[in-house]
Design a protein that fits this description.
Low-confidence stretches of chain A: 1-24
Largest sheet of chain A: 6 strands, mixed
Oligomer: homodimer
Strand content of chain A: 5-15%
Number of strands of chain A: 19
Number of helices of chain A: 20
Mean pLDDT of chain A: 94
Helix content of chain A: 40-55%
Largest interface: A-B, 123 and 122 residues
Chain lengths: 514, 514
């Protein structure tokens, strides 16, 4: 029985699902990105060796803390680390050796196989913003996010022609009790989208719920044997692994589900102010975290992550799209490739409060850096505003549109005879015009990437239509996409089972809001 | 006598200039950018060889047109080209051979020697927008540019801590007769700024005026022996060199002044829709143009240019910040390095009508591409709006601010022991905080690039201060810079001589407005 057979069998249902498939509006899967362009190698071999040597020194001499987690300490002791209290001193080379069992690439399956993604190698997977407690749009301004907002972001993600992934906590549904949010969020990803998604990490029990719900959606056998979730495990920088995050990692790794092991670093606060110092700490932390995932289950899929930004020393606020963040992101990419691990970083980052020019500059800086740095999994690729405090509807579609440019850039340059266009140059000759020539006519529809949001109209037309700025144009697109949205087909029996699981779990817990 | 002595002697004056210097506000020169980071090598060796071979085929088989220019045809014939009518067929390899006498790098002198720039090699020189007939600011909207606007842009350029160059036609002073504009523009650059500037190219006689005024400013001997102007010679793509532009080039090359020889290409209209085809045409055109400059005067300083954008096939409008433009810009950079010529391209390009998010995305895409493509001279680095039809005051300072990030990025990553920060990592340890540690305290002022325009404030503060977007913040900076501006010191005798030259020239011509 191959994977496809296993999934068809475990999906069950059949008739209803097929009927639903026939009636649902067809959304094309976002094309896979397999980079045909080189990575940008910012740092020299000498610099990389220094970082690697220093990271090993950090792990051995300073060590890392696994707090409130005796089982983790025992695992490390068994593996040969020198454990003193909660501090784990990892002998030079050990962490790297343990990382060797992590796969260089893996498939994250989506319930619609056309949307499954490859994570690692030359691939780039684009996923939306993660974590904001607030949302913003031009009409409603800035406000606490609700589950209704959450569902709309999932719908927008499903409709994007460039986004590969439905994400995780696209915004925090603050109107749902904290201890029940993950259920509603998972249900939304599983029912409103057929792209891959992320699991909950805010408690080990919620990670377990994520696995259970995935088993309902994909079938238990399929989940046992395949990766269907990628979840975000943040390291508590500097050098600390807390029990909550590690508990979630343990659940996922044991279930063969993927984790991103990622420091969350505001440079100057959680890491040194220097690029080399931050790179050293990031490498030490991710080596320890990835190694730990392999202690839980050798071969568990894992992604080496780096969320790095710098601090504004005047206001203490994190800043985004800055040169230092780019330098670190390029450097971690080089280190990840040397380790043979998939790499998560970058995104459409900005500190701006509005989807304005600042948001455009900073996000474009970050998105370009992510493409060139060889990132394999780009969380926060669209929708991020105000340093991650806000998920913006307009910015979601603005960024998602720019992701199309990354797709095109990543495809590289065709160099076949037709692309060389010598006959066109001959045909047109000095002083001529290419608009009418055969080569142009053949290729004009696909030759140039074209934005679906930005304004390309003549000034007079643009003015007559209301002189709209990008936010207004994006707002119109948000409304259009939500109006056009149709849920992807889902076997009604599976939907009912998911809803029953959520209802049962909710009923068994009192509401908690902190 | 060395260069400095020559200039001190020819400047004359003395007492008055020294007094003026003492009272003038000191503006720091923009720091030189010498890239300590690698270029991005997008195309393979095989692709580059194909382009080079095809470009030679274009030059030999199709040829280039030098229109209304018998002297140019004679020069080409003497050099061994096959001239048929106005079409010059350049035997394979000849153009490349002629380019060999062009210097790989040269100095463009400013009247303030601290502002002189090196053009070529690993250097990146940043210059403002060139050519818009309109200006825009939030208060006055979009309107025809005046000489008053022009002077204000020169003042803003002088005040920028990151911009190296005062530019040329920063906007078209449409209130001055066409045949006299160049005089007022040159006078503004020479008196309101002490950064390097560009000469006029709209008629050979105006190029001659530019050289004459430069001789008044720098001294005739100095100008004979040094490059004090860089001027923009556009090729009339495809493959056509018109008499006006070539006439200006002839004046400048003969006077040992530098020209940028640059196709102006909207892909799909003036070049094939494919990247490889456009690269082939760009290389053929610049090879012919640079070679011609060397026929006029072997050794004349010249910059290989490429202004490339693509066309929106729906509206026919040029588009900016697109992946295809980036691919071409990277490719031309590789070709220029193989030729050993300084390279001009990129800029803060956008098609947006407003300094909004679209402007931010597209400009950041273009600026990053310029840095990574190895550009040596970046015209249009700040102020460009609406496809180059508009010079925007707010966008001028927004872009100029982002140029600071390019400076920092270009500086690369320090890897000395202090930058490695191992002592800081030891001092802080797991769970600690870097804000208070000695390493942070020592470096926090210079560690991170900090915008002087963008908003980093807490949400509440930002809201209390009026919830300003980037355009509003930039508008405030424009007003502040213009209020703080003081003209750099200039020998009153030189100023008087420049004014007399302009007055005399103006009096000798009737006004012309077309």
């Amino acid at each position: 029985m191959d994977e496809g057979q296993a999934r068809r069998r475990t999906r069950g249902g059949g008739g209803a699902a097929r009927r639903a498939e026939r009636t649902a509006k067809r959304i094309e899967a976002a094309p896979r990105i397999t980079r045909a362009i080189p990575d940008y190698e910012l740092l020299s071999e000498a610099a990389l060796q220094i970082i690697e040597r220093n990271a090993d020194t950090v792990l051995e001499e300073i060590g890392v803390t696994f707090s409130d987690n005796p089982a983790a300490l025992a695992r490390w002791r068994d593996a040969g680390a020198d454990v003193r209290g909660e501090r784990v001193h990892i002998p030079r080379g050990l962490a790297r050796k343990l990382c060797a069992t992590a796969p260089a690439r893996f498939t994250q399956h989506a319930r619609n196989p056309a949307n499954s993604v490859e994570i690692g190698g030359r691939d780039l997977v684009l996923a939306p913003v993660y974590g904001p407690p607030f949302v913003r749009d031009a009409e409603g301004g800035r406000r606490y996010a609700t589950i209704g907002d959450f569902r709309n972001f999932v719908r927008l993600g499903q409709m994007s022609p460039w986004l590969h992934h439905s994400g995780g906590t696209v915004c925090e549904p603050t109107d749902v009790p904290v201890n029940k949010r993950h259920l509603d969020m998972l249900l939304a990803h599983m029912t409103l989208s057929d792209k891959p998604f992320m699991g909950s990490v805010t408690e080990p029990s919620r990670a377990a719920d994520s696995v259970e719900m995935a088993k309902i959606l994909f079938g238990a056998d399929f989940v046992d044997q395949n990766t269907v979730m990628v979840s975000l495990i943040n390291i508590n920088s500097p050098l600390t692994f807390d029990a909550t995050m590690m508990g979630a990692l343990e659940v996922y790794a044991a279930a063969n589900q993927a984790c991103i092991v990622s420091p969350f670093i505001v440079g100057g606060a959680m890491a040194p102010v220097s690029v080399m110092g931050t790179l050293t700490q990031v490498l030490a932390e991710t080596l320890a975290g990835v190694a730990y995932s392999q202690l839980v289950r050798p071969g568990a899929p894992v992604i080496m992550g780096a969320f790095v930004t710098s601090i504004d020393m005047n206001s203490g606020a994190p800043t985004f799209g800055t040169p230092e963040a780019s330098q670190i992101t390029y450097g971690v990419g080089q280190l990840a490739r040397r380790l043979g691990l998939p790499y998560r970083s970058a995104g459409g980052f900005t500190g701006s409060k509005l989807p304005d020019a600042q948001a455009g500059y900073e996000s474009a800086n970050s998105l370009n850096m992510g493409l060139m740095a060889g990132v394999n999994f780009m969380l926060h690729a669209c929708g991020w505003l105000e340093g991650g405090l806000v998920a913006s509807f307009e910015k979601f579609v603005m960024d998602a549109d720019q992701l199309g440019a990354l797709h095109k850039m990543a495809a590289g340059v065709a160099m076949d005879e037709d692309a060389q266009a010598m006959d066109a140059i001959r045909e047109v000759g000095p002083g001529g015009h290419y608009l009418g020539c055969g080569h142009t006519q053949t290729h004009f529809k696909s030759a140039f990437w074209r934005s679906q949001v930005l304004d390309y109209k003549p000034f007079e037309t643009w003015e007559e239509e209301g002189a709209r700025d990008t936010q207004a144009l994006a707002g119109a697109r948000v409304a259009r996409l939500l109006a056009d949205y149709e849920a992807p087909a889902l076997d009604p029996a599976i939907r009912a089972a998911l809803e029953a699981y959520v209802a049962e779990k909710k009923a068994a817990m009192p509401d908690a809001f902190t």
